[in-house]
Design a protein that fits this description.
Length: 463
C-alpha cells in the first residue's frame, strides 16, 4: 500500500505531461487541476481501503477521458429540468408550477432585449412596472387596484408593515399558520413591527372574539386561509362578510392571506375548499395576498389585490422596492394572466390547471403507453396500478385526485438504488417507492415526458 501511495504523482507533474495539454486547451488549467486533485484523492482512498492494487496509466487516453468526464459533469448547470413522476402537481422541491409556453416565450423576449419595464411609451417618462399586470389582476379578481412583489410571504410582510407597524393585528389562533421552511405567521407579524393579538381557540373563533379584542391601537383584522392544513370536527370560523362588517364599523382593515389563491372555480371538479380570489374580495375583504406559482400557474411572486387607497399606500412604502418583482417574473406573470381571458380556456392553457382537471381516462391511457414502452424496451416486471395524486404546494391538503401509476421492479436492484440511479439520469426522473416497488404517477407527466422516462431506463441498462 505504501509503495502505491508513493507512486501517486503530484498534480503539477501531471499538468506538465503531454497528454494533459489537449485537456488544458479544451477546458482550462484550473479545471483540469481540480479534476486531477479529485482523481488522485479518490485513488488515494481506494489504495488505503485496499480496493486498488495497481495504479492507472496516467499517460493513457482513458485517464484523460475520465478527467474530461469529471469536468463536463462539473460544468453542468446545478438547476436543471427534472421529470416529476410523484403525482404532486405543485411540488415545491421541484419548482412548483410548470409554466405555459406563452409564459416561457415572454420570459425569453423580456430577457433577450431591452423593454419598457419602467418607461411609459406614450409620454416618454418613467413608468411603473406594476402597470403591466395591474389591470389584468383587477379584471380577473374585481379588485380596485393591485401590486405584485417577489413572493406571498413578502406580500404579507409589506402589507402589515405599511398598515399596522407599531399597532395591533388581531388574528385567530386557528389561523396562525406555518408555511414552508418553518416560517411562521406570528414571526412575520413580529418582523413587520406590528403587535399580534391572538383571539379564539385553535378550533373555534367567533366574530365576538375579534370584536372584544379591538381597541384604539388595532389596525388590522387578519384572516389566513389554512391552505396547507385543515382543522376538522368541532370547529367554527366567522364568515368573511361578518368580519368585513366589523372592520368597517371599527375603522380597521380586513386583510386575508390566501396562500395559494385561485382565479377560477374548482368546485365543478370536486375541489371545493379553495376560495376564489374574486369571491373573497366580493365578500368585503379589503386586501388579499396570494401566490403566483401555485394554483394560478405562473412564476414565483406575491400578488396583493384590493382597495385602491391601501394599494397606493403599499406602493409608496420603502420596503416595496426591496421586494419588488423582477422583469422576467413579471413577463411570465403577464403572459399567464392573459391565459385566463378569452379566447383562452385556463383549464386547457395553464399546465397546473390542466393537470388537475385532466380526465382519469386520459391519465390511464398515458400510464398504458408508458407501461407498454417500458415492457417493449425489455423490462419484465411492469404494472399499472391505481394511484392518488395531489395538488400540492400547500393547496387542498385533504383532497386527492384519482390517478394511475406505473410500477417497476428491476432484477438485482433495490427500489432505493433504482430511485437513486434515475435521479442521475438526464433529465432526472423523480418518482416514489411504495411497497417495495418504484412507482411513477403519470398525472404529473406530459406525453413527451413518457419518452424521456423510457430513455432514462434504457440509459440504466447501458451503463
Amino acid at each position: 500500500m505504501n509503495t502505491l501511495l508513493r507512486q501517486l504523482p503530484q498534480v503539477d507533474a501531471l499538468l506538465g505531461a503531454a497528454g494533459m495539454a489537449s485537456l488544458v486547451s479544451a477546458y482550462s488549467r484550473q479545471e483540469v487541476a481540480a479534476a486531477l486533485r479529485a482523481a488522485l484523492e479518490a485513488l488515494r482512498r481506494d489504495v488505503k481501503a485496499g480496493h486498488l492494487t495497481q495504479l492507472p496509466d496516467f499517460e493513457a487516453d482513458a485517464f484523460a477521458e475520465s478527467l474530461a468526464g469529471t469536468i463536463d459533469a462539473a460544468r453542468r448547470p446545478n438547476l436543471r429540468p427534472a421529470i416529476n413522476a410523484t403525482g404532486i402537481i405543485i411540488h415545491t422541491n421541484l419548482g412548483r408550477a410548470r409554466l405555459a409556453p406563452e409564459a416561457l416565450a415572454a420570459v425569453q423576449a423580456a430577457g433577450a432585449d431591452h423593454s419598457n419595464l419602467e418607461l411609459d411609451l406614450d409620454t416618454g417618462r418613467r413608468g411603473s412596472r406594476y402597470a403591466h399586470v395591474e389591470h389584468l389582476i383587477c379584471e380577473l379578481t374585481g379588485a380596485e387596484a393591485a401590486l405584485v412583489v417577489n413572493n406571498c410571504a413578502a406580500a404579507v410582510l409589506l402589507s402589515l408593515m405599511a398598515t399596522a407597524q407599531g399597532r395591533k393585528v388581531v388574528a385567530s389562533r386557528g389561523e396562525l399558520i406555518e408555511i414552508g421552511g418553518a416560517f411562521r405567521l406570528p414571526d412575520v407579524i413580529q418582523q413587520s413591527g406590528a403587535i399580534l393579538k391572538e383571539v379564539g381557540a385553535t378550533n373555534k373563533t367567533r366574530v365576538k372574539d375579534y370584536e372584544e379584542a379591538i381597541d384604539p391601537e388595532t389596525a388590522v383584522l387578519l384572516k389566513s386561509h389554512t391552505s396547507n392544513y385543515q382543522i376538522v370536527g368541532f370547529t367554527h370560523a366567522p364568515r368573511r362578510e361578518d368580519l368585513a362588517a366589523l372592520a368597517r364599523a371599527s375603522g380597521t382593515i380586513l386583510m386575508e392571506d390566501l396562500g395559494s389563491g385561485v382565479l377560477v372555480d374548482l368546485s365543478p371538479y370536486g375541489l371545493t375548499d379553495e376560495p376564489v380570489v374574486s369571491a373573497v374580495l366580493k365578500s368585503g375583504v379589503d386586501i388579499v395576498m396570494f401566490s403566483g406559482d401555485k394554483l394560478l400557474g405562473g412564476p414565483q411572486c406575491g400578488i396583493i389585490a384590493g382597495r385602491a387607497d391601501i394599494i397606493r399606500h403599499l406602493k409608496t412604502h420603502p420596503f416595496c422596492r426591496a421586494v419588488r418583482i423582477d422583469k422576467l417574473s413579471l413577463a411570465a406573470l403577464e403572459a399567464t394572466l392573459r391565459l385566463y381571458r378569452a379566447p383562452h380556456d385556463p383549464f386547457r392553457s395553464v399546465p397546473v390547471l390542466r393537470a388537475i382537471v385532466q380526465p382519469l381516462e386520459a391519465v390511464r391511457a398515458r400510464a398504458g403507453r408508458l407501461a407498454a414502452a417500458l415492457t417493449a424496451s425489455g423490462l419484465d416486471d411492469v404494472t399499472i396500478v391505481p394511484s392518488e395524486a395531489f395538488v400540492g404546494g400547500g393547496s387542498l391538503p385533504q383532497r386527492h385526485l384519482k390517478s394511475y401509476a406505473v410500477s417497476v421492479v428491476l432484477p438485482h436492484q433495490t427500489p432505493d438504488a433504482l430511485a437513486a440511479a434515475l435521479r442521475k439520469a438526464r433529465p432526472p426522473v423523480i418518482g416514489m417507492i411504495r411497497e417495495g416497488r418504484f412507482v411513477m404517477d403519470v398525472r404529473t407527466l406530459t406525453d413527451d415526458e413518457v419518452t424521456c422516462v423510457v430513455g432514462a431506463f434504457a440509459g440504466l441498462r447501458s451503463r
